[in-house]
Predict the structure of Poly(3-hydroxyalkanoate) polymerase subunit PhaC.
Amino acid sequence: MTTERNAAPVADVEALSRNAGLIAEEFGRAVVAYAKPLEDGKPNTALAASVSEMVRTLGTVAERWFVDPHKAVEAQALIGGQFLALWGSTLQRMQGEAVTPVALPDPKDKRFAAPEWSSNPMFDFIKQGYLITTRWAEILVDEAVGLDDHTRAKAHFYVRQLSGALAPSNFLMTNPELIRETLRENGANLVRGMKMLAEDVEAGRGELRLRQTDPARFEVGVNMANTPGEVVYRNDLIELIQYAPRTETVLKRPLLIVPPWINKFYILDLNKEKSLIGWAVAQGLTVFVISWVNPDARHAEKDFESYMREGIFAALDAVNEATGERSVAAAGYCVGGTLLAVTLAYMAATGDDRIESATFLTTQVDFTHAGDLKVFVDEAQIRSVEASMKERGYLDGSKMANAFNMLRPNDLIWPYVVNNYLKGKAPLPFDLLYWNSDATRMPAANHSFYLRNCYLDNKLSRGEMQLGSVRLDLSRVTVPVFNLATREDHIAPALSVFEGCRAFGGPVDYVLAGSGHIAGVVNPPAKPKYQYWTGGPAHGDLGDWIREATEHPGSWWPYWFSWLEAQAPERVPAREPGGGRLPSLAPAPGTYVREKA
């Protein structure tokens, strides 16, 4: 029972009591699912290692402050003064006086949107106390003396995790919106939430597989990844998809897209409105896309060289057979772009000129200024990952998915915890988050090579990386390069991509798009959300380049197509997939993309 909408809800004691029993029952089910791996002798050692690393890192920060009595007093004064001010302002408010808040949340912070966070003195105190404490922790990390850059970055990362997890908005008794909702529903929201929690722990086989969208609303090949085409080649690592033409003539030079294997390729073919692949086909490109296998223990020894030879080289051979064209334009996204750059350096060293131009989408080749993922990379952490991979032959897809979520916990973790398990509401259908949760595994040899040679030792940009007996030198890559960065990218930062431009030996057109790693790339012309900047090659520093660059409204896609077309404008009659020397093996999007992690 409730009164009018804006009045305080009145709980039904009998219903509350009944739902309390159901909550306990579902919570018990979740505990049983969580304990199942322990009973089977498979404890979550990765979690223990992560906690140990966090304690060690934050302990190092604490040492810098508290071994010196003067620094310890300074640290206590930083927070003590603000809490005294908060106590004083709260007492004034309770006496009816108007006061200026000691700490205000960021206007974009949706956690404290409910009016009670400001109107109710108690919840306002809780909110401001949380903000004071978390900002104090950030200051301690910023101003700790003698920390190396990597330890400081890790400490900031762990502070973000803790502050995100301990936000009062995450707990029933300290969130006014949750209290109101629970009383209104007599706890039925918590019953639904505990049921979803139990289901998600069971789905994760003892680990929480946080649902961010409604998976029942999406199906690959039906309302996602549904641009028409055919699989025209398959081996142990790839299926190669050739897409059906939509124009009478096409550019003579085909386009080969190398997507990341960390995620599935259909980020570039989400649906008809958001498909870079479909749009490229509509412009008159013969588009081929590599769909990587979702590897298992059989692929444990597949390394970077394997991905080059059985991936890109095999695809080049297949494109030649399918179209009769020896030369292609190639495009690589994220780590797929890094592999493409490695391949181009290898081809330059061995006299292979089959790739005539390269497009890199949010791709790093110089990892000096690598993004937030670098906090996971040091010798100790890599050894831990390698030990875990050795047991299975691969890194479980959920580990990478969790790592990406942890980079933005207040966007990708805690809103869903509150919505799902405390409000008891199923998440809304969202195609991008469905793709994000459709995780892939990574072969042990490949992932170890990538972490060590790129993130840890930055060998590619230094000319020290080797594949087989060939030393790779990006300065020998002289084909035209289109290098797209996105302004808010936290995985491949714009600065990192900018600096990587200098490694190539040929002309590089650096383009900066608005938004981040995904939305900045998937920005279709029909419904553009963001702008882009052009300014030619990377020169000076990034700030100078941006100040001199030209801003354009809308999508960068047409600008890119003009760049491609200008290099090889000749057209030929459209090519039908599966109609030539390579017969169709399956309709797009193929079989590899459907395999779950």
Summary: The longest helix spans residues 13-39.
